[in-house]
Design goal:
The chain is an alpha/beta fold. The chain has 29 helices and 16 strands. α8 packs parallel to α9 and α9 packs across α12.
C-alpha cells in the first residue's frame, strides 16, 4: 500500500516539476497514524527513497514524531547526511502552540476510527463526520490533537490491509448503524437499518432515538399512543418503532414491562401487549390502566381478536383478578364480565369498577316512591345481572301486585297532551327496572330532570294493548324499539347469541339511544316525557331454564287455543284461576309471576312480556327539561317521599 501511495506522489511531483511549481505534501502524519508499524516502516522507507530520487525538486513534508514513528525515523534515516543536509529537520513539540482547548483535552482518549462505507451507504453519512481528506488536513493543522476522529472512506465494502490494529474499520451496514447511530439489534432487517440510518443523517446533532421519537411521537405520550402509531406503520417502520420503544419506554411502565420480556419481537409485540397481559394480571393495576389507554387510543376494534385471546387464556382465573383488565369497554369484554357474574352468582365491585353501565343499572339511589317497589326492583336487577332466579323471588313475583298509589301510565301522560312545549318519547319494552339507570346517567350527563315516577300499563302487557294516545305527531319523538327487539330476537335478529351478549346489548340502550334522543328533543322542546309502552321480564325466562325448573306450565281447558306464553282469552266457562289475573274488561286472563301457558311452537326469546309481573306492568314516567334539577329522595322516618302522590301535581 505505501508503494502505491508514493507512486502517486512521484507522479504528482513529476507534473509539478514540469510546471515549475513547488510542492507541500500534507497529511502524512494522519496517514502514518492509520498504519500498522510494519506498513508505517514501509511508508517511511518509501519516503526516504522518494527523497533520494527527488534531487532538484522542491518539496516539503511534515511528520509527527510519536514514539513508534520516532524510532522508525531514526532507523530509516540513520545516515547523518539527512540531518546535515537539512533534508530531515526536527521541531521541538513544546514550542508548538496547541489549538486544543482544555475541554477538548478531557475527551482525548481512544483511537482513530476509519469507516469504509460502500457507495450505496454514502448518502447516510452525517455531515459531522470527516472524509479522509478532511482528516489528513486536520492532523496536519493540529499535530498535538490525539482525540478520537471518525473518518469515512468510500470503498467497495472491504477492509483495507495493513492498517493499525488500533484502527477500527467498519465495512458493513450493521457495523455502520452501530457505530454511527448506536443501533445494535440483530432482529432488525437491513431494510429497517437503512431506513433508520436515513433518518439518523437528518438528526441535526440529535441521537437517533431523539430523532425517531420526534418522528413517531411528535406530541409525546409514547405509552398512550404506541399501539396507534404501531398500527399506522408499515413493516420497515414497525421494526424501527419497536427498536425505539424498547429504548424510550418509561421506567416502570407496562410498555417497558412487555418489551423486556424474552421472546417479544416486532411480529408478536401487539399480541403480547394485549393478550399477553394474561401472564401479568397480578402486576400493578396501573398497568391495566396504561394498557386500556393505549388500546382505546388505537381504536379498540383493532384489538378485539387479542382481547378474545386474553379472555380465553384467563378463563380459569377469578373475576377479581381478571376484571380490572377487561376495562376497554368492548362488547366482548362486557359480555365476558356478565358471563362471570352468572358463574359467580353476583356482581362484584371489581365488575362495577370497569363496567359503568352495570354499575348504573344496579345504582341504589332511591328513585321509587315506595319501599316495597324499591326492594323488589333492586333484587330483580341483581338477579337479572347474575342470570339466576331464587325460589323465594319466584314466589314473590307471583304474589306481589301494584300498590294503589301507583297511577295509570296513560293518566300521567295525558296531562301533557296539550302542552305545546312538551314532546313524548316512547321506549318499547322499557320497564321500571330501568328507572334507576335512566336517572343516574341523566345526572351524569347534566340532563335536567323535573320529576320521576312509575306508571301502570294496561294488561296484557304488549304494544297491542298499550298504544299511547298523543295526537300531535310533530311533538312525538321517534319510538325506540331496541329493548323490545332484544327481548324477542336478541341483539341480532335471526342469529343466536349468548345470554350475556344480549344483556350487554340491553345495558347500552339507555346511554346509547334513550338519553341521546332526549338531549336532541330538548333542543327543540322545553320538556320531554319518557315512558314505556310496557316492560318485559328476564326472570320469567330464567325461571323456566332453572335446574330444577321453577316455572310451570299452567293447565288450560281442553281445546283452548293459546296464542301467547303470558296471556289468553278468558275461558267460555268458569272463573279466572288464582294463577292468572283478569283484565278490567274481562276479555283476557294474564299470567301472574313466572309461570306460562301451553303455547305451541315458537321460541321464547331473551325476555318475555304480556304477563302481570311488576317488571312487565310498571314503566318509568320521567319528565326531562332544560332547567330541571331533580334531587333523589331521602329516607324520612322509615318512609320515602312520594313523587307521584296525586293527580293534580304541578311540574
Amino acid at each position: 500500500m505505501p508503494d502505491e501511495v508514493f507512486g502517486r506522489v512521484r507522479d504528482v511531483m513529476t507534473a509539478q516539476q514540469i510546471s515549475g511549481k513547488s510542492l507541500v505534501l500534507l497529511g502524512m502524519p494522519g496517514y502514518l497514524a492509520l498504519l500498522a508499524n510494519e506498513n508505517k516502516r514501509a511508508a517511511i522507507v518509501a519516503l526516504r527513497e522518494w527523497i533520494d530520487s527527488a534531487s532538484g525538486q522542491e518539496a516539503v513534508c511534515f511528520l509527527r514524531s510519536d514514539d513508534d514513528t520516532e524510532l522508525i525515523l531514526k532507523d530509516v534515516f540513520a545516515n547523518p547526511r539527512y540531518r546535515q543536509g537539512k533534508q530531515l529537520l526536527e521541531i521541538d513539540a513544546e514550542k508548538i502552540v496547541s489549538h486544543v482547548t482544555s475541554e477538548e483535552e478531557e475527551r482525548i482518549a481512544g483511537r482513530t476510527e476509519v469507516m469504509l462505507v460502500g457507495n450505496d451507504l454514502a448518502p447516510f453519512i452525517p455531515e459531522l463526520f470527516d472524509t479522509f481528506q478532511k482528516y489528513l488536513r486536520y492532523t496536519e493543522e493540529h499535530p498535538n490533537d490525539n482525540s478520537i476522529r471518525r473518518i469515512v472512506v468510500a470503498s467497495e465494502g472491504r477492509e483495507l490491509a495493513g492498517l493499525s490494529a488500533e484502527v477500527r474499520q467498519v465495512v458493513c451496514l450493521r457495523d455502520f448503524a452501530r457505530v454511527f447511530f448506536d443501533v445494535e439489534d440483530a432482529e432488525l432487517s437491513e431494510d429497517a437499518l437503512r431506513w433508520m440510518c436515513e433518518w439518523g443523517k437528518g438528526g441535526s446533532g440529535k441521537t437517533l432515538s431523539e430523532t425517531l421519537k420526534t418522528q413517531f411521537f411528535p406530541e409525546g405520550e409514547v405509552s398512550k399512543r404506541v399501539l396507534q402509531v404501531f398500527d399506522g406503520c408499515k413493516r420497515t417502520e414497525r421494526e424501527a418503532l419497536f427498536w425505539l420503544v424498547k429504548r424510550v419506554a418509561s421506567k416502570g411502565s407496562y410498555l417497558e414491562y412487555v418489551t423486556r420480556q424474552e421472546g417479544i419481537l416486532v411480529n408478536n409485540f401487539r399480541s403480547a401487549y394485549v393478550a399477553g397481559a394474561a401472564e401479568w394480571i397480578d402486576e400493578s393495576l396501573a398497568f391495566a390502566g396504561e394498557r386500556r389507554d393505549a388500546i382505546r387510543e388505537a381504536n379498540v376494534i383493532m384489538s378485539d381478536t387479542d382481547i378474545r385471546q386474553f379472555i380465553t387464556r384467563c378463563e380459569g382465573e377469578s373475576t377479581s383478578r381478571v376484571a380490572p383488565w377487561l376495562n376497554c369497554g368492548t362488547d366482548t369484554e362486557r359480555a365476558e364480565l356478565l358471563r362471570r357474574c352468572a358463574v359467580d352468582g353476583l356482581v362484584s365491585n371489581s365488575v362495577k369498577d370497569v363496567y359503568p353501565e352495570a354499575a348504573a343499572y344496579l345504582n341504589s339511589d332511591p328513585v321509587f316512591d315506595n319501599l316495597a317497589l324499591e326492594d323488589y326492583f333492586r333484587e330483580y336487577r341483581e338477579l337479572k345481572m347474575a342470570s339466576r332466579v331464587t325460589p323465594e323471588f319466584y314466589v314473590k313475583a307471583q304474589q306481589v301486585v301494584p300498590l294503589n298509589s301507583v297511577q295509570s301510565r296513560d293518566v300521567m301522560v295525558q296531562r301533557y297532551v296539550s302542552d305545546n312545549v312538551c314532546a313524548l318519547l316512547v321506549v318499547d319494552a322499557m320497564g321500571a327496572e330501568w328507572l334507576p339507570m335512566l336517572v343516574a346517567l341523566a345526572r351524569e350527563r347534566n340532563i335536567g330532570v323535573d320529576s320521576i315516577g312509575v306508571g301502570e300499563v294496561n294488561l296484557p302487557t304488549t304494544t297491542r294493548f298499550n298504544n299511547i294516545h298523543w295526537p300531535d305527531v310533530a311533538r312525538r319523538l321517534q319510538d325506540i324499539k331496541r329493548f323490545d327487539n332484544i327481548a324477542h330476537n336478541g341483539i341480532e335478529a335471526h342469529e343466536k347469541r349468548r345470554a350475556e351478549e344480549n344483556l350487554a346489548g340491553a345495558l347500552d340502550v339507555i346511554g346509547g339511544e334513550v338519553l341521546p334522543r332526549v338531549a336532541d328533543g330538548l333542543m327543540r322542546f322545553e320538556r320531554v316525557i319518557v315512558t314505556g309502552d310496557h316492560g318485559s321480564s328476564r326472570l320469567s325466562v330464567l325461571a323456566w331454564q332453572a335446574e330444577p325448573r321453577l316455572a310451570r306450565t299452567l293447565s288450560c281447558d281442553f281445546g283452548a287455543e293459546i296464542a301467547d306464553w303470558r296471556y289468553r282469552e278468558r275461558a267460555a266457562q268458569g272463573l279466572c284461576p288464582p294463577e292468572l289475573e283478569e283484565t278490567l274488561d274481562g276479555r283476557y286472563w294474564v299470567v301472574r309471576g313466572y309461570n306460562r301457558l301451553p303455547k305451541k311452537g315458537g321460541g321464547q326469546g331473551f325476555e318475555l312480556h304480556g304477563g302481570a309481573s311488576l317488571e312487565e306492568r310498571l314503566v318509568p314516567v320521567v319528565i326531562f327539561s332544560r332547567t330541571g334539577q331533580f334531587m333523589p329522595k331521602t329516607k324520612t322516618g322509615g318512609k320515602r317521599l312520594q313523587i307521584v302522590e296525586k293527580d293534580d301535581f304541578d311540574l
